[in-house]
Amino acid sequence: MTSLRTPESHPERQSDNAIVLDHVSVRYRLSVEPRLSLKEAIVRFNRRRWRDFAALTDISLTIRAGEVLGIVGMNGAGKTTLLNLLARVIDVSTGRLRIRGKVSQLIDLMSGFHPDLTGRENSYVRGALLGLTRTEMNERMPGIEAFAAIGEFFDAPLRSYSAGMILRVAFAVATTVDADILLIDEALAVGDAEFQRKCEARIAEFRTRGVTFVVASHYLQQLLQICDRVAWIEAGRIRQLGAPRDVITAYIAAHT
Amino acid sequence: MHYDSDLRRPRAIEEWLDLIRSGPLLRALVERNIKIRYKRSVLGLFWSIANPVPMLLMVSLVLGRLLSKYAPAYPLFACAGLLPWTFFSQTTTVVTSEVAGGIDLWRRTRIPKTALALATVMTNLFNLLMTLVPLIGILLIAGRPIGVALLSLVPTLILTSVFAFGAALLLSTVALAFPDIADLYAMLLPTLMFTSTVIYPDAIVPAPIRSLLPLNPLTTFIEAFRAPLYANAWPTAGAWLVMTIVSFVTAAAGWLLFNRSAHDVIAHA
Questions:
Q1: How far is A168 from A153, CA to CA, in rounded Å?
Q2: Residue A6: its pLDDT value, please?
Q3: In 10 A of CB B131, how many CB atoms?
Q4: Which of A176, A216, B24, B171 could hold A71 in an S-S bridge, CB 3.0 to 4.6 Å?
Q5: Pick from A100, A107, A133: which is nearest to B108 by CB?
């Protein structure tokens, strides 16, 4: 994965900023009671009580085009919220977010898959969820099938797959998208050693094309290898941002 | 593609712009829905087409002779009412229970939040059209008069779809806050059915109550659907007016209310 650290190969994209977060905050409304039924609401004649929850607070961050930014933090620190924000699954509450380029996500490889449909059929649905048209998917399908390399299973219902096979199909579809910015959430460690190498090669290929990466992970060693910078998020704020070695060393020190 | 959060439009407008660009997604979702139904059972697609059949047999056996004075060829009469009813009730039920169950995709992928509801409407519309083919065949074999009035089914089905989409969004808006609306709605469905003219002609209802039937908006839609199939007649001008107003007002209200609250839903996770 060391081959990924080649930002110099794309000087023309260096000057562009792919993502700019300007004092961005995300607030959720969390219900204090877990789930209130309509019946209870009528009987007790009161409204659901809400509590404001600051998932991200005052995040300012500029990610350059072609950069690999790692994100570390404890569970619940706001890593996934940040990725969801960049994927525009959720909105900023305050502040300003600007994104230049097409975003694709390797977040949660499984969503949208149905056990009764075949790998091929699921790939079409998944591709549509990622914004690809039918024609585009038709063109890519041989490549997806070859990359997944699960043989006849590709046309068998997903029910009959092993977990590793499902991940292979999911990764093959997710990486077929032409994205300028790829968001990755813990998805790098998939499959056996051989498939792992294929994934790394595919990511390296994206890297040489100048794709920007935002990678949230607990695999600190991997982040150390692939990232240009690392952001440490704690309780919804950026605690430290800088060179991978500095940030990860500090992060490890704080949690041991 | 450039995005700037400062240039966001109101959510109801953003959602509309997203949805009209989602042709490929809608197509994939509808295909998926149809395939899933097709694969799930031995009877396959036939299963969803056959959905109104047990009810049809039952009402024909129980009520057929009793009502034949008011509605000759009663099974055809009932069938022409049960088809749009099944379409409406299935669409609204499926969408509401999906939303009540919490839609995982909303949290994980950037898709228009109304896309799943619209895909359900389109799937059920497909099923309805599939059921319409054998029905028209039966009408021809039975020697019933049918003709160009059948063309009225096109606008009728469009308006019924708009109405079902709006009603589904309104119910979904409630389901976002109170998931048990799905159960409550299932309880209310028979009431909705029996207060509209799905399985009986309005002639059997005593006059003072009969004038109340149009208060259930479904009555107008069902009568408009039935007119060309059963009576070889066009829906009345009044029916068109009512259907247009009801469907678009429902859809607009559903759209605005749903978009106002659906975006907070990730927060419930």
A1: 11
A2: 45
A3: 21
A4: A216
A5: A107
- Give the integer Cα–Cα distance in Å for A23 and B133: 59
Structure tokens at B212: 């109340």
Contact B180 A37 (CB under 8 A): yes
Residue B115 pLDDT greater than 90, yes or no: yes
CA-CA distance, A105 to A87, in Å (whole number)?
7
Q: Classify residue B147 by burial, with Cβ atoms within 10 Å: 0-12, 13-18, 19+.
A: exposed
Asked if A111 lies within 8 A of B110 by C-beta distance, the reply is no
What share of chain B in percent tops pLDDT 70?
94
Whether this model's ipTM surpasses 0.90 comes out as no
- Whether residue B27 and residue A89 make contact (CB cut-off 8 A), yes or no, is no
Ramachandran angles phi, psi of A135, nearest 5°: -60, -45
CB B156 within 8 A of CB B221: yes
| Rounded Cα–Cα distance for residues B96 and B91 (Å) | 8
CA distance A198 to A183: 18
From chain B, the residues in CB contact with A90 under 8 A are 263, 266
Question: What are B116-154's pLDDT values in tens digits?
Answer: 999 999 999 998 998 898 889 888 998 888 889 999 999
Report helix, strand or coil for A99: strand
